[in-house]
């Protein structure tokens, strides 16, 4: 009888040979490995999510800046949101116009002044042009005013007379002169003049993203 034969079995059940039942590896180690992997993945996701929140709420330069650099091209710095200055032109009623006739045609200054008044302009002096301009203006007319008029009154008044020449003088007042020249036929048609005034009120286009 083998020493491994349980007592009382009478030798009926005998364990022979050198093969023993295989014992399973403890599952505890596998659980530790799986838990570690899950923890690493979770920490990675939390870190990624935190970075995205910082970029969104902090204006960070994460993916947004990368896209901006790609769009701008190599070597370009991404631009912040450009702010285009909006220039609000003067209204016709804010501009006082002196109308002078430099042509041989009588009554041209008054009729032109009356039409400008209908279009909302304030009218100042009306009469014949000074000697320096009388019969010496070959084009449709001259707009004469102080240096600042080039960015304020002239653009607005020029919508009423196409082809007018701009000229500055040393006056200290804000009024401007419209000196009618020999090529003058009429003011710009009201419909076209109104459209030109509306175009002045539109803001300038934003600068391109090119370097």
List keywords for this structure.
211 residues; alpha/beta; five-stranded mixed β-sheet; 5 helices; rod-shaped
Q: Quick recap of the structure?
A:
With 211 residues, this protein is an alpha/beta fold. The protein has helices at 28-58, 63-72, 108-118, 153-158, 190-200; strands spanning 96-101, 122-128, 141-145, 165-168, 176-180. Helices cover 33% and strands 13% of the residues.
Can you walk me through this structure?
The structure is a single chain. The protein has 211 residues and is of the alpha/beta class. The chain has helices spanning 28-58, 63-72, 108-118, 153-158, 190-200; strands spanning 96-101, 122-128, 141-145, 165-168, 176-180. Strands 2-1-5-3-4 form a 5-stranded mixed β-sheet.
* Main structural class: alpha/beta
- Rg, please? 45 Å
The tally of strands reads 5
> Shape from CA axes?
rod-shaped
Order of helices and strands: HHEHEEHEEH
Q: Largest beta sheet, briefly?
A: 5 strands, mixed
| Helicity level | 25-40%
What's the rounded overall pLDDT mean?
78
* Strand ordering within the main sheet: 2-1-5-3-4
Provide the fold topology:
Elements: H1 28-58, H2 63-72, E1 96-101, H3 108-118, E2 122-128, E3 141-145, H4 153-158, E4 165-168, E5 176-180, H5 190-200
Parallel strand pairs: 1-2, 1-5, 3-4
Antiparallel strand pairs: 3-5
């Amino acid at each position: 009888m083998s020493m491994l034969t349980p007592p009382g079995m009478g030798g009926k059940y005998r364990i022979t040979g050198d093969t023993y039942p295989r014992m399973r590896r403890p599952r505890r180690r596998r659980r530790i490995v799986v838990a570690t992997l899950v923890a690493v993945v979770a920490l990675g996701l939390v870190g990624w999510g935190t970075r995205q929140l910082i970029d969104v709420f902090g204006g960070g330069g994460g993916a947004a800046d990368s896209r901006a650099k790609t769009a701008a091209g190599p070597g370009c710095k991404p631009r912040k949101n450009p702010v285009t200055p909006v220039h609000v032109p003067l209204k016709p009623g804010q501009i006082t116009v002196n109308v002078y006739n430099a042509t041989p045609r009588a009554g041209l200054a008054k009729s032109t002044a009356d039409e400008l008044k209908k279009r909302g302009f304030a009218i100042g002096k009306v009469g014949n042009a000074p000697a320096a301009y009388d019969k010496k203006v070959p084009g449709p007319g001259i707009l004469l005013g102080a240096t600042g008029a080039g960015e304020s009154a002239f653009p607005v008044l020029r919508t009423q007379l196409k082809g007018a020449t701009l000229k500055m003088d040393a006056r200290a007042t804000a009024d401007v002169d419209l000196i009618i020249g020999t090529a003058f036929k009429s003011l710009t048609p009201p419909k076209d003049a109104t459209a030109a005034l509306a175009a002045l009120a539109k803001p300038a286009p934003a600068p391109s993203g090119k370097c």
